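To whoever is covering the structure queue this week,

Two jobs came back overnight. Logging them here so there's a record in the thread.

Job A:
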Amino acid sequence: MRIEVVGERTISQQARTYAEYRVFAALTQCTEADKVRRVRVLLRPVSRGSGCGDIACTVTVALDGPESFRIRTTGDHAYAAINRAVLSILIALPSSFWTPPGISRWSWSINDWRFASLLSCWSEA
């Protein structure tokens, strides 16, 4: 799995490193992590129109074969946007990435401590 993090000058190196770590940590928890080929994270400031700025986090995940998906979230700061994007990635992944065959994704992962910790990180952002 190759992870590329791109950020404008206004995005700190620390935030870029955090994005790489969070995305890698989340994706390596799934049972089919070897099917993730490439991930691209783009962090950039966006304007809400009222003079206030947010940070947008766009994550593109390329899976084996022709499948890929893109997630875009925003937050008051880079860390909030990253945390929201990570949770969205986990929700967007096909259920086969998470569970052994025949087990519901939600019944398996909602009781999993890792999923609960992701939710708590997201709600703190």
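Job B:
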Amino acid sequence: MAFLPCGAGELGGCGGHDRLKMKPKLAFAIRAAILGCLFLGTAAVAADSKLEAQLVWGTNDKDSPNPNHKPVDAKVRERLQQLPLKFTNYFLVNQKTFTLPATGSQRVQLSHKCDIEVKKQNEDEIEVSVIGKGAQVVKRRQPLPKGEMLVVGGNAPNSTAWLVIVKKLE
């Protein structure tokens, strides 16, 4: 069926649209269903996410030269040992929990030399840019369902490395 402007076609103007009228209760139900779907679809997409970021130092040294650095927890250590990294020890330099808005991005300072900018791509995918000394050093985009970790890193002096780990908490 083609919709024609008022006054055109075989139905003879606006009066011809009377054939298309629905019963009021049915029309209300259809409108309510459409609005409900729109609202639920928007609400599902618009959820904020609670994330945790960790700045980690990887080394083969038994201890960190900084007494404030503590070994990473068992789950993080297990995940890092699954990666093709050459280090035997990993120390937590800093850890921050933050809320990632449904749209836009969130910048988080992990040290005086290291920030990250996290952007939600969709409900289960994020993009992380690591900024070292004011310049972007690495950018990575990947799905991040609850409980999973995104790991990026780079070389540091004396055959060590820095790693940034981002986890979705909720």
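Note for Job B: Residues 1-20 have pLDDT under 50 and may be disordered.

Please reply-all if you pick these up so we don't duplicate work.
Q.
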